[in-house]
Amino acid sequence: MKRKYAVVILAIFIVAFIVTFPMIGCKGDTVTPAAKAETAAPETTAPETTAPEATASSETTETVQPTVAAEKITKIGAEMTGAIPSFMCINKMNMVTVEVKNTSDFTWRTEMPNLVRFGYHFYGQDVSFTEYDNTIRTVLPHDVKPGETATVNVDIKDILNKGTYVIQIDMVQEANDDAANNFWFSSKGVTMIEGTSYFGACQ
Fold this sequence. Notes:
The protein is of the alpha+beta class. It is 16% helix and 29% strand. The protein has a domain at 78-200: Immunoglobulins (Immunoglobulin-like, Sandwich), CATH 2.60.40.10. The strands form two sheets. Strands 2, 4, 5, 6, 8, 9 and 10 form a seven-stranded mixed sheet that branches. A three-stranded antiparallel sheet has the order 1-3-7, with no helix packed on it. Strand 4 (116-124) and strand 5 form a beta hairpin.
C-alpha cells in the first residue's frame, strides 16, 4: 500500500516537472516589447548657416561745415534808443535795456566773421577811474540783418569804485583778422547812448 502511494506521488512529480520546464525556458527568452522597439535613431546634423560678413567700408563721410564769408562793409550805421540809470551798483550786475536798429549794409552776427557786440566806455567825474576798450561785452540775442531791430540788455559791471561816472553804451565789431574790420561804431559816426550815473554799494 505504501509503495502504491509512493508511485503515485512520483508520477505526479514527473508530470508537474514536464509541464513546468517548458514555461521556465520560455520565460527566460521573453523580450519586452519596449526592448524590441528600441532602435538607434540616426544622428541628424543641423545645416551650418554662415552669417553674411559685414562689409567694412573703407570710405568715411566727413561733414564739412560751410564757411561763412565776411560781408563787404560799405555802410556802418545803427540807431540806438535807451537811457542810462541815475544810480547803479558797484557789487552787482547792472543791465540797461537798449533797442537797436541795423542801418548798416551788412548783417550783425553773433559769431565771426562780422561779430558785433555791445560794450561801453566809462569816465570818472569825481574819481580817477576811466576805461574805454576793456569793458565787458554783451552778445546780440541773434543775428540782425540790415533793417531789422533787436532788444539787448547791456551788461555793466566793470565799475568797482563808488563815484559818479559818465557811461557811454557803444557797439563794436571785433575779432576779425583784418584790423580795418575791428572798430567801435561811435568811431564811424554812430551816436552812443550816454548818461551820468552814480555807482554805490547795494545790498
